[in-house]
Specification:
This protein has a single domain, classed as Beta Complex (Metal Binding Protein, Guanine Nucleotide Exchange Factor, Chain A), CATH 2.170.150.70. Helix content is about 10%, strand content about 45%. The protein has helices at about 30-35, 120-130; strands at about 1-5, 10-15, 25-30, 40, 50-55, 60, 70-75, 80-85, 90-95, 100, 110-115, 135.
Length: about 140
């Protein structure tokens, strides 16, 4: 069970992996938003993420490009701890490895990721395969 969230603790999450991971994939997206925010994301098709938001009015869901994903930005501290995408009535998510707490950095398997030129159909199919399919907001 991994925990994380934004700096001011308005947005918190727990990430339950299906098994003890030997390594955690950390995809460093090269889009302009992620480059400016240091976006490095992880997800696992068998994982569960539970999100707690203390004050929802202090969270902004930012969407750009294809508008198929919402970056959950804390209005207080500016951290983006997770991204969600609704695909065919199912909510998927990835979390920021930079927002994880108490994680041994040696567990991270960092790799560059570029999604430039992906069609929307290909993008959503990739998210279904790699993102967390069980997202719970409390």
């Amino acid at each position: 069970m991994l925990q994380g969230g934004c700096h001011c603790r308005n947005i918190r999450f727990t990430l339950d992996w299906p098994a003890q991971p030997a390594q955690i994939p950390a995809r460093e997206c090269d889009c302009t938003f992620c480059r400016k925010h240091g976006g490095v994301w992880t997800g696992c098709a068998g994982a569960v993420v539970t999100v707690t938001v203390r004050d929802p009015s202090l969270v902004h869901a930012y969407a750009f490009g294809t508008r198929t994903a919402d970056f959950h930005v804390c209005r207080v501290c500016g951290v983006v701890p997770l991204v969600t995408s609704r695909i065919a009535d199912q909510l998927y998510a990835v979390v920021s490895v930079n927002a994880l707490e108490g994680l041994d950095p040696k567990l991270l398997d960092r790799a560059a990721a570029s999604f430039e030129g992906e069609t929307e159909v290909v993008r959503l199919a990739r998210r279904r395969r790699n993102w967390i399919p069980d997202v719970r907001f409390i």
